[in-house]
Structures are given as structure tokens and as C-alpha cells.
Design a protein that fits this description.
With 295 residues, the protein is an alpha+beta fold. The chain has three domains: 123 residues, Helix Hairpins; 55 residues, Urease metallochaperone UreE, N-terminal domain (HSP40/DNAj peptide-binding domain); 72 residues, Urease metallochaperone UreE, N-terminal domain (HSP40/DNAj peptide-binding domain, Sandwich), CATH 2.60.260. 26% of the residues lie in helices and 23% in strands. The chain is built from seven helices and eleven strands. The protein has a four-stranded mixed beta sheet. Strands 1-5-4 form a three-stranded mixed beta sheet. A two-stranded antiparallel ribbon has the order 2-3. A hairpin with a 2-residue loop joins strand 4 and strand 5. The radius of gyration is 26 Å and the shape is extended. About 21% of the residues have low confidence.
Length: 295
Amino acid sequence: MADRDYYQILGITKGSSEADIKKAYRKLALEHHPDRNKGNKESEEKFKEVTKAYEVLSDPQKKQAYDQFGHAAFEQGAGQGPFGAGGNPFADAQGGPFTYTYTTGGNAGGFDFGGFSDPFEIFEQFFGGGNPFGRAQQRRPVYSIQIEFMEAVKGVAKRVVIDGKTQTVKIPAGVDNGQRVRFDGYDILVEVRPDRRFKREGNDVVTEEEITFPQAAMGTEVNVETVQGPVKLKIPAGTQPNTVIRLSQKGIKNVRGSGYGDHYVQVKVTIPKGLSSRQKELLREFDSSKKKSWF
């Protein structure tokens, strides 16, 4: 069976941005990850397939080669492809980009990554970091835990029972959905429940703020709720609908280092309904005065 198109596998187009490619991979990898689908061969193969596609499309050089030559760019002996002469960097005995047994020696199951990034990039471990392949004799047990959005933002300590033993797991501030935290002899896969107020984009946060038409025209000051607490925001006169205002460093802490993301406020202008006769008259006067001022 011919290899499927990598763009089709991830559900994206050739014009998709780097962020779109990573977002599509994150969604599919989380859905089909072996830890969530134990014993499901179909999901295991699907996970390999989306990882294989991501490894090419997330690398500008490999993506360019794929766009030009297709799968031939990576086929063994395909001299026209940039990776042809050196053999297929993806091929292994199972037809996937890696096996699921971690070994020492810098490879997995005999597969040489050839400089490729870690296929578990979106699940990288915060404590110890780097590529899990080659560091452990066998696969580390993985347990999942669900936390609230603000617990992920601020960090939280959770008491869990694993193998009949009660332990306290510390989740660092800034952890995102689908990321892993190393703890003792196992990993914790974090699932973050969405929040109705805040939309997360990396370390940035996006919210909407509704104001009235007069407030947009004359300017106003509003209280904006951020993940770091309330902030007074001045909205200038003449603000147009869907204007985005940035609150610097009011976003989420960088889980791997210092600094914070930003908070973006998208301004929504509400148009009143059910106006009284007097209100309609005032609006007509306003509209008429605007027209006269144009000449």
C-alpha cells in the first residue's frame, strides 16, 4: 500500500503554518498515544503514522524536500532525494519511526534517529529533559492526572494513590495539557481541563471584553481578569470592534525557565437592540452631524 500523504495524515494543507502543524500533531498524538490506548494496535500504528508525518513537516529542510519529491525523498536508494543516498531515516522493522522499547546506546530498537528531533517532543519531561530514548533500560510507567486550568497556571500539589501507596505529586506552574512531569520512577501525564474564561495559546492567554457602542466611541476603563489577577485596562476613544490589546507579561509562566507570556484582550462592541424613539432620534442626529463634518 502506498504511503499516505503526510498533510492528509495530519489533516492540514501545504499552506499550514508551523504552529498549525504542531497543533494538529499534538491533537492526534494525544488521541492515539499508546499510554491511552493500551493493546490497541490500530491506535499504535496511527500514532507512528502521525509522528512520522510530523517529523518531516516540522523540519523546514525535510518539509521542502517532501514538497518537492514526495515520499521518494526518503526512500532508500532514491538518489534524487536529499536523504535517498543515505537510506530511509524513518524505516525500521515495524515500518514506523521508532519502537516502544527504550534502550541504551542512543537509539530505540536499533533505529537511528539520524539527527531527528525527539518524536515525543510534546510530551517531553520537565525534570531531566531531553530524549527519553537511551536513558532507561525499559519503559517508565505512565499515569495520567486531571487538573483545573488555574492549577496548571499556578502549580499544584496533588495527593495520589499509586500501587496502593499515597504520594504527593508536585505539578509545576505553567504546565500545559498533554505534557509530562517526571516523578520518582514514573511519569505523570497531565490533562488540563479547559476554562470558560481563558483561552491558552502557548504561554499567552486570550480573553474577550464586551463594551458598549458609546464606550467604544468615547473611551472607557474596564477591569480585566487575568490569570495573575484583575488589571485595569484603558480602552482608547474610537476603538473598533475586535481590536486586540496586549497586556505584557500578564500571561502564564514559562514552565522551563523565567518569564511570562502575555494576555491579549479582544474588544467586542455590543450593538444595542430595542432602542427607544428618543435614542433613535439621538443616533440620527449623530449620524447627520458626522455627514456634515465630512464636507
